[in-house]
Fold:
Amino acid sequence: MKYLNITFLLFFSVALLSCDDDDKARRAETVRTQRQNDSILQIISKNWKFDVPPLAPKVEERVGSWKEWQQFSDELAQKPTGSLRAYKQKSKNLVSKADALRSNIPPFFSKPQVYSRIGVIITKIKSLYTYINLDIIPDKKVTSLIQDVTRETTSLQNQLDELVRISEIPREEGEEQMLRSLDTIRMANPETAPQPEQSAQPVQPTNVPGQPAVPGKKIIKSKI
Structure:
């Protein structure tokens, strides 16, 4: 019985030491992760800026009724502060605002190329949300995606501006541009141009009695 008690005490002591070591290891890992996250937070905070240029005045007039665009732009402009949790929440909000861009697009801008560019923005922002919610955040990937979102949003604005400019081209000028384009295509592919018709060879007139003979022709008189 005595030996059994000693064995139990030894086992209990070893278990306590093992638990204590595990607890120390967990605390050390927590501290290491916290330090790493603090470093990542500084990097993300430094690079979290979407330098999207302002809309052209004529574009801004046409998107006045597109409240989803205004909400998305405001969300981009507002920088989160504090912890990583604030940036995670911000990325979640951006996903929601980007998804809403497809709603209530002004009819003037309801074009396939506009929907396509909005789709690219949504994909980039969802990737940003995914990476920033990992346990170990890849700061370089997050920074790269921030730049991608900025670039794609700027491209969308340029697309809107181009649609406005094209709509202002007078019809006659637009037709001239189309004709010039067709001429350019014909010059690049001369074989497609219509060929002039070849005129038929002239028929040599025959000698008619009572009219002078055609030069170069001899009249053979028949012998009677």
